[in-house]
Amino acid sequence: MNRLWKIAGLGLLAAALTSSSAMAQTALSMWYHGAGNEVESKIINQIVADFNASQSNWTVELQSFPTPAYNDSVVAGALAGNLPDILDVDGPNMPNWAWAGYMQPLTINEAKIENFLPGAKGYWDGKLYSIGLWDATISLVTRTSTLEKLGLRTPTLKQPWTRDEFMAALKAAKTSGNFPYALDLAMQNNGGGWYAYGLTPLLWSFGGDLVDRSTYLTAEGALNGDNAMAFGEWFQALFTGGYAEATQSQADRETGFAKGRYAFSWQGSGTATKALAAFDDTVFLPAPDLGHGGKVGAASWQFGVSKTSKHPEGAAAFIEFALQDKYLAAFSDGIGLIPATTTAAALTKNYRPGGPLEQFFAFSNEQGMVRPVTPGFAVESVVFRKAMGDIANGASVADTLDAAVDEINADIERNNGYGHR
């Protein structure tokens, strides 16, 4: 009888311990931008499930939003005081969210991100706020057969095309009569972030910028100085000279390169697989050096911790867990973007040594440049987008860039320097 009571007592004790362990798991809320993308959703849900099963302290509860609605949802959540513990944030937006009080510094072991691509690391005010599992960048896409028929040198990272060589390539494509336009600049994509992502590298390569990065307090001289004016005149000449089209249809943007409408296409890594599928001899070229080195955009979506999280150590633990190479590789294979480390790249089908997109990793690492690291970028990008559209359609370069500088500077003043003073 005593033995039966002892056995029962041990059972009750075990049940109590199990219950206590379950109760000890603290819930962490997480918002993610990938709702509607089945592949992306499957991967992020797998990471969450793996993390929850890997330890007994935390359990992540995921809520996904459609990408177009995500940023507005975060802003609304911040105003309502109900942000989650873990956020993902588009890299260029992070400084604005940190400055606005949406996010707090990310306290992970930074030794674990030492070998990450620079664009995957989100720093603001000298502190790490976010880290990405992937990066995105840009390439000049063409065909080997096009280069051969036009008699063009194949540029390399060590010896990219100079401005003169690039213009000679465009002239050769135009005069060949084989292409309606020499260059696709994705001018259709003027309602999103492409202009500030895809066209600013051309401005940077001329030596201009959206804002003076030494202070972040003015755009004077950066966006309307001699280098920026030279860029604007060159950019406009691409359209007035018939090398590129200022007004582009969605269909031409999506299929124009594959149908031979363009000899060269300035494309992001996210669409590279479509270019590969179009032609067996598709080749990805580094950005041309337009005077101050070849430049491409860097930084994509990243993970961070909200300012209001009561469990930043748990949120950081999840983010650090997600940085494993197998997850970086899974996202790369699933959505086509660049894995953040060379070791993860080696596990992928496209970015491994000898893989069809191997060059993009090197482009990001060697030519990649992040957009201005300032809360003011949210406004600067919109102002730049309008200016580029106006210049492409024939507006005065000097007047347009001067007006853009005035608008950016007024915004900086309205916001008391965005914390840069």
Automatic annotation (TrEMBL):
<dbReference type="Pfam" id="PF13416">
    <property type="entry name" value="SBP_bac_8"/>
</dbReference>
<keyword id="KW-0574">Periplasm</keyword>
<keyword id="KW-0564">Palmitate</keyword>
<feature type="signal peptide">
    <location>
        <begin position="1"/>
        <end position="24"/>
    </location>
</feature>
<dbReference type="InterPro" id="IPR006059">
    <property type="entry name" value="SBP"/>
</dbReference>
<protein>
    <submittedName>
        <fullName>ABC transporter substrate-binding protein</fullName>
    </submittedName>
</protein>
<keyword id="KW-1003">Cell membrane</keyword>
<keyword id="KW-0449">Lipoprotein</keyword>
<comment type="similarity">
    <text>Belongs to the bacterial solute-binding protein 1 family.</text>
</comment>
<keyword id="KW-0472">Membrane</keyword>
<keyword id="KW-0732">Signal</keyword>
<dbReference type="InterPro" id="IPR050490">
    <property type="entry name" value="Bact_solute-bd_prot1"/>
</dbReference>
